[in-house]
Amino acid sequence: MKYLVLLLILTRCQLKQGVLEWKVLEKITDYGQNVTLFCNVSNCCPKHAGWDRYTPAQRTIFIDVKTGSPTKKYDGKVLTDGYTLVIQNLTKQDLNVLYSCVYDSTLGDQQYLLEENVFDYISTTKQNSPIDNRTFSAGDISTTQQNGQIDNQTFSAGKIAGIILGVSIAVLVVFLIICFWKRKKERHKNIRNSIEGSNEEVPLINCFLEEPNDIQCIEGEDAVLTCKLRPDLQAVKWFKNGKEIIQNEKCIMSTVDTQHKLTLKNTTAGDSGEYYVHVGILSKKNSTKYYRNPKGNKCG
């Protein structure tokens, strides 16, 4: 009897925090225009230069802008002293969102893209016309006094509006700081729980250079599980059903550059199960389903 073995391999990794920061290169005047974020990196960029977005779940926009393909929403390129992320056709959904740049194994600070960072407002205040030296009549003096009272009222209204605006900005800043602090605290808690054996999900950077594919296999043939990871990671370990796989004549592990392989020789129905890759102290597993396979299919 022949069977289909479906093997899914997922991994998680933790990048070290760095001092990378991004800034807006040039402000715009309205929605629908393109905004360019710039990440400053000296002698850029022999290593992977990417971007991440949090809404609040983490999403990788580019693993490497040098090799990544532009989309209708995002583009990027490498400059002499850094690299960019171009957010095309800016909408309100692109603002008040955390962005960070990732260079090699260094994760930059998570920074909010706010409205005041993006838009260049044009002042509509008109300059006061100079008053010519002349002789004022009693009527002119009365009119001037009335205008002065109106100006004082206008100044008072403007002062109140300025105070309200200042308080609103202060409240917004405090709110953003609290959100950032809570997010950082939750991240540390998840990492600590993972170290202690917790099954909670930990939102880490995707370290796959290529996503793993499902594998179909016939009993008796060899199955090759592959994953392509970012360089300079900790040792990679393979697990099945929660137990570490030890290399032997049946299970052969190999690594070439960023390509990691686990070869299962002469597969049987007993090879069905949950396989996953373990990097460092964190990992994530997926359930594996076992199907009957039509005759003639090969593992791959």
Automatic annotation (TrEMBL):
The keyword ATP-binding belongs to this UniProt entry's keyword annotation: no
Alphabetized GO MF terms: protein serine/threonine kinase activity
Pfam families: I-set
This protein's record includes keyword Acyltransferase: no
Keywords associated with the record: Disulfide bond, Membrane, Signal, Transmembrane, Transmembrane helix
Source organism (scientific name): Mytilus coruscus (Sea mussel)
Signal sequence annotation: 1-18
Superkingdom of the organism of origin: Eukaryota
Xref: PANTHER family: IMMUNOGLOBULIN, STRIATED MUSCLE PREFERENTIALLY EXPRESSED PROTEIN KINASE
Designated name of the protein: Ig-like domain-containing protein
Transmembrane segments annotated in the record for this chain: 160-181
Domain Ig-like: 203-288
